[in-house]
Write a structure and sequence with these properties.
The protein has about 300 residues and is an alpha/beta fold. The chain has two domains: about 5-165, NAD(P)-binding Rossmann-like Domain (Rossmann fold), CATH 3.40.50.720; about 170-295, N-(1-d-carboxylethyl)-l-norvaline Dehydrogenase, domain 2 (Orthogonal Bundle), CATH 1.10.1040.10. It contains 13 helices and nine strands. It has a six-stranded parallel sheet with strand order 3-2-1-4-5-6, sandwiched between helices. A three-stranded mixed sheet has the order 7-8-9. Helix 8 (about 165-195) packs across helix 12 (about 265-280), helix 8 (about 165-195) runs parallel beside helix 13 and helix 11 (about 240-260) runs antiparallel to helix 12 (about 265-280). The termini are far apart. The relative contact order is 0.09.
């Protein structure tokens, strides 16, 4: 078992940290939210009053932060954590950020003898709580061998995508495709319903046919078809529209840097930005169904 510092206890980080405790790891946490820290304290974690205090004596540091600027501010520079950590520490950043920042942090870590991996996740809040997340990891094979032992407490599918930054590229590609097939699923279901089909029956037909996809199978966006889906809970998240807009923006950056004309990704971003601007940023991303219904 490891001594782990966990930084960032939001909707995803909090459940992930709890699963590390359940697996028997020793945990010290830090978050700006006192309430979030209290939840982890009740679960058995030590609580630090700063990120620097949290990482003292840690073998492994895990961060789950909102954006690349927060990751850079936390780890880089002479006042950043990398300058304070001893060589041999394993740092895993599970935030969803731009690949260039991940590469920059990795380069600084390597220069200091620290193993770093970008390890963004897929699966949402439910998977974070259940410990069934998918991790997409970027870094060296040696760092991955160490990381896999820790990540197994929080996820069931752990992939080594490639070198530093590869995890972020894989996450951007995945969520761009998720947005595209969610919108397509909404359009297909609404098209059927307006022509007299039952949404549940049409869903069964497409699930048994070539239109089968994750949105239909796990996260059906039509209200009442799937009891466990946000669509049947007034589109309470889940995975918020604000986060999908962020991820689609990152995907657009990746595509531009690689010279890929990602027309479907750009269209998905535009549609989600419009849905966000209409006041739906805090609602589940499958609520794009309502935009389709409104025309």
């Amino acid at each position: 078992m490891s001594n782990i510092a966990f930084l960032g206890l939001g909707n995803m980080g909090g459940p992930m940290a709890k699963n590390l405790l359940a697996a028997g790891h020793t945990l010290c946490v830090f978050d700006l939210s006192a309430a979030a820290c209290e939840v982890l304290a009740e679960a058995g974690a030590a609580v630090a009053d700063s990120a620097l205090a949290a990482v003292q004596g840690a073998d492994v540091v895990i961060s789950m932060l909102p954006a690349g600027k927060h990751v850079a501010a936390t780890f880089l520079g002479e006042s950043g954590l990398l300058a304070q950590l001893p060589a041999g520490t394993l740092v895993l950043d599970a935030s969803t950020i731009d690949a260039e920042t991940a590469k920059q942090v990795a380069a600084d870590a390597t220069a200091r003898g620290i193993d770093f991996m970008d390890t963004p996740v897929s699966g949402g809040v439910a998977a974070a709580a259940a410990g069934t997340l998918a991790f997409m990891c970027g870094g060296t094979a040696e760092a991955f061998a160490r990381a896999e032992l820790v990540l197994a407490a929080m996820g069931k599918k752990i992939f080594h995508a490639g070198p530093a930054g590869a995890g972020q590229v894989a996450k951007a590609a995945n969520n761009m495709l998720l947005a595209v097939h969610m919108i397509g699923t909404c359009e297909a279901l609404e098209m059927g319903v307006r022509n007299g089909l039952d949404a549940a029956v049409l869903s069964e037909i497409m699930l048994a046919s070539s239109g089968r996809n994750w949105s239909l199978e796990v996260y059906n966006p039509y209200p009442g078809v799937m009891e466990t889906a946000p669509a049947s809970r007034n589109y309470d998240p889940g995975f918020m529209v604000d986060l999908m807009v962020k991820d689609l923006g990152l995907a657009e950056q990746v595509a531009e840097q690689a010279g890929v004309d990602n027309q479907m990704g750009r269209l998905a971003l535009a549609l989600y930005q419009a849905h966000q601007a209409a006041g739906n940023g805090q609602r589940d991303f499958s609520g794009i169904m309502q935009k389709v219904q409104e025309g």
